[in-house]
Amino acid sequence: MENLTAKSFALREDVVNMIMAGKGGHIGGDMSVIDTLTALYFNVMNVSPEKADDPDRDMFIMSKGHSVEALYAVLAAKGYFPIERVIREFSQFGSQFIGHPNNKLPGIEMNSGSLGHGLPVAVGMAIAGKMDHSPRRVYVVMGDGELAEGSVWEGAMSATQYNLDNLCAVVDRNRLQISGSTEDVMHQDPLEERFASFGWNVIDVNGNDIDALIHAFAVAKSVKGKPTVVIANTVKGYGSAVMENKAAWHHHLPSQEEYEQIMKDLEAHKTAAMEKG
Fold first, then answer.
1. pTM as predicted
2. Helices in 23-102 by DSSP H: which ranges?
3. Is the peptide bond between 101 and the residue preceding it cis, with omega within 30 degrees of 0?
């Protein structure tokens, strides 16, 4: 787990370099969600560039598409494309590496970013998997701010109606969105009870702890007859005090001084994880 933790901080460094080169990006949410993506892509999901067309591959939807930089970094590390290309081309005119997931790129199942769409589409994919008698599982990552969208809860109802135990949703619960605290913008707590009332299996974890996430996904896979949601309690901007728990870092381009401090902090976290391992 320490090796994956070290990898998550190395991926954060890639994200920061991407955002600096592209002169913009949703850095705060990238930093909170990247542990979830690291756990899924390097331990949990049956995906790889070689299986890109395998009908039984697991399927992943980044519903909080504005955190695409984290997804690009993870897909590059998985071998779908070179990270050097992503950093060079991100947010440049004519580039495929745009500010939301683009399914013209390998490894990306659907265009996303219109918040509230990811879970309903994942429900459709999971229903198709059941109809195909496929072993594939469907994973969808949502931001907590997007849970204000009514389509999320329509999807949640449908998932239990069709007993979609091949579906696992993750809520990146960092409690901040572009306009401030989620609890001020649209009150959500108790979120666990809300999903449970819709018939979901609910797992509450520290979303910046890769070991805890991997255990949660293993439990989710064992649950039969209902979908699972993992409430991943995270810190927005996780990895550097420059960014952590600050709503202003939802979409912020670091100054050179901030960049240097963030990279120093991330490198320290990465080194500590490697030494622990």
1. 0.97
2. 27-39, 68-78, 83-89
3. no
Planar angle of CA 140, 238, 204, nearest 5 degrees: 50
Look at residues 5, 6, 143, 3 and name the one whose alpha carbon lies nearest to residue 62: 143
- Give the domains, in start order, of the chain with CATH numbers: 2-276 (3.40.50.970)
CA distance 36 to 247: 20
Q: Are strands 167-173 and 138-143 parallel, antiparallel or unpaired?
A: parallel
Distance CA 252, CA 247 (A): 10
Which residue's entry shows tokens 């240097």?
Answer: 260
Q: What is the pLDDT of residues 34-79, one digit of tens each?
A: 999 999 999 999 999 999 999 999 999 999 999 999 999 999 999 9
Distance CA 29, CA 170 (A): 14
For the record, the structure tokens of 129 come out as 């998997």
Supply the DSSP symbol for 43: I
Angle between helices 68-78 and 27-39 (to 10 degrees): 40
Query: How do residues 118-177 score in pLDDT, each as one tens digit?
Result: 999 999 999 999 999 999 999 999 999 999 999 999 999 999 999 999 999 999 999 999
- Specify whether the CB–CB gap between 227 and 164 falls below 8 A: yes
Q: Which two tokens stand for residue 57?
A: 């591959």
